[in-house]
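Worked Example 4.2. Read the sequence first, then its structure tokens.
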Amino acid sequence: MIPAEERLARALLTRIAEPGDELLGRLIAREGAIGALEVIRSDAPPGTDPAGPGEKTVARRFAAWRARLPGTDPERLLAECDALGGRLVCPGDAEWPSQLDDLGYRRPYALWARGDQDLRFGCLRSVAVVGSRSATSYGINVAAEMGAELADRGWTVVSGGAFGIDAAAHRGVLAADGLTVAVFACGFDVTYPSSHAGLFSEIARYGLLVSELPPGASPTRGRFLVRNRTIAALTRGTVVVEAARRSGAISTARHARDLRRAVMVVPGPVTSAASAGCHVLLREWSEVVCVTDTAEVLDLVGLIGDDLAPERRGPVLDRDRLDPVTGDVLEAIPARGGAGTARIAVTAGVDLDTALAALGSLSAAGFVERCAKGWKLRRHSPGG
């Protein structure tokens, strides 16, 4: 548990700065959260980092942060969060997911969370399932089934709570009594979209609602895009179920790729605009893997020996159960007409006695029958 003063400082930073600001991340890394606030509050000109933005950009950001300071009470923010049944999870807390540290200077300053589940523990085995808001019935079915099957295997599904694929994945998990995490681009108490009030209530009850923004914060387009990096960082891999050429899901996939997480794409009909972005990723990104079911997803993100997908095989035919020599004899019989025993033996590469014994077994099993030329295949043999 971090000191109360640092918790207050981080709560305040989530209010005055936009999520994922690398300039503030560098300042926190150098000064700590409390020290960063002291630098922001001071009247001294902000220093610049050679690896960071230029002097004008730094001055503009500091001015914006300072403008938001008056009237912002971090103790009141925490009290409001507590009244809503939430909490602030900070770096250094036992519940903090350490994989978020991979974001470096763009790591969240803190996370506002609502729900009884432990965020760190819940995301140890987690997969992001994302996709188009304008999803087709195909995409919705795939996302819901994948969410349910991941939940059945003990995996957490992380998504953004949006229309379409996100909502289908969340609902699939809830139907299977699993754990799902919705990462918001607004305060966790802001129902966006409004028609998802019931869904978010269920997620808060059985899973987690998470945001980098304090309660009451409104969503913006920029916040949605920045939010996607958190979805990617929380999980071992991202599955894009459906995505048009311009889609926020592709942004999440890009963050996952940059973080060296698994990037997986579900293919769709080549005639579907809703899958056009998926096909671009499959064609142009060497890191992307095509997946068609949950087993293939877990083959990439799961633990060796525990979650590997079974080997893909076609249907087992009766001829597959034949021993190798008998199988060779069967293959030596021409598809049309018939052949004598000697010719069959030569073609199969066996002696005459072996060929006779194999032909007897094949006849008894219904694969072959005698004919004027010797032996021929039965028309409706079990060899299929």
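Now turn to a second chain, presented in exactly the same format:
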Amino acid sequence: MNKQQCKLVALVVAVALASGGGSYWLARQGQAEHTASPAATAVGTTGGKVLYWYDPMVPNQHFDKPGKSPFMDMQLVAKYADEGGEAAGVKIDPGVVQNLGIRFAMVESKTLTEAVAAVATVGFNEREVAVIQARSAGFVQRVYARAPGDVVPAGAPIADLLVPEWAGAQQEYLAMRNTGDKALASAARERLRLTGMPESLISRVEQTGVTHPIVTISTPIGGVIQELDVRSGMTVGMGMTLARVNGLGSVWLEAAVPEAQAGRVRTGLPLVAQLTAYPGETFKGKVIAVLPQTDTDSRTLRVRIELPNRDGRLKPGMFAQVRLEAGTGKPAIMVPSEAIIRTGTRSIVLLAGDGGHFQPVEVQLGQEAGGKTVVLKGLEAGQKVVASGQFLIDSEASLKGVLARMAEGSAVPSPSSMPSNDKTAILNQASGKIEAIKPGEITLSHGPVASLGWGAMTMTFKLAKPELAAGLKPGDKVSFGFSQQGSDFVVQQLGKSGVTP
């Protein structure tokens, strides 16, 4: 890259950082096709089709016809179709792109996944519940040393019940069996079963040949006693609940997933849980249900997770943190989130072509996760986009008119390229009229400046010495010489026209 190109790039970056006006170019992309003007059918002096006219100092503003700029008191410049209009994007020398460190990324089609983290509490598995009831009316003869909260194994005794009705039914059965009538004995035995007598008690009567009206009520599963409503000596009725036991073979985690991520969680997803009680350990489980109601206060959705609890270490009420890889499960078009430029009214991505061509494309965005954003409309897999350095390209597009005029004057040495200790060695000469004089500065309407490629305009200059304006007043026609010092243009020589300064 030669010195002139370096100067052009430096000016692009400086103006972009100073004004931030380049993003307006991106905001206007996609509107050109709806704002066609009569200029689009005009033909310039070069024979090419004119897209519009513009002021090189204010390149964002377009005009339908030629004339004087309302901003800088200079003639408007034509923009030709063969120079690349808005529809053609912008072209930057590939060497400049490489030196600026602009990064690119490929548009991908892949499944979007995101690690969803949520807090949860351990609870009982409500599907492992045993309700122990009295099958017939009777009296409580004995209760065992049980209390709510006790953990009991399967088959643990709860209470002994005396059932008078069963005593008569058992005597009848034994009598029928002694008659040798198998049909009557079978009917009597069926009656015992229908009264609610367990099969184990009937077999015991058959083996011993005596009645057993007292039955021991036991729990069918192991777990924790949630309820115990039986006391010694009390009368119980048929179907009365004596106890309620909740199994501990597995537990549930009730996780609160933020509403914004709830759409990515589905039944069957595997996950990993960590409990405060067991730091450093992980427990694997899966989502068994996504409950259909959202908490209106916390804006979270309840997700039910099942974890095995073979050793009984997971206690209901414990606090846990869960992490699961959630996603839509369907492939989608994705780009790095940093590649997206949000203008406030639309989202834009710079599409990179061959030979340093860049085309702004308006996109419709979807979900964002892990530094990637889903593009619902506007891009296809395999395309290349700009991932960083968009503002440089943006500035290049907005200042193209300025750079073009600088390129035309490239054969004339610029004062800014001269050593800082020799600012007045080469002066830009011009003539014009004084519009206003203030302490330390002067406003001039001047003609073209050949050494800089400027057209006629009105602008304010700094005065190298206040006495340069002595004896002059607004309206006087003057000849002057000026140089550039940093971002200021400073008048070094000044005198009335026809008089050597």
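Notes for the reader: The chain has three domains: 107-125+248-388, 129-243, 416-496. The chain is about 20% helix and 40% strand.
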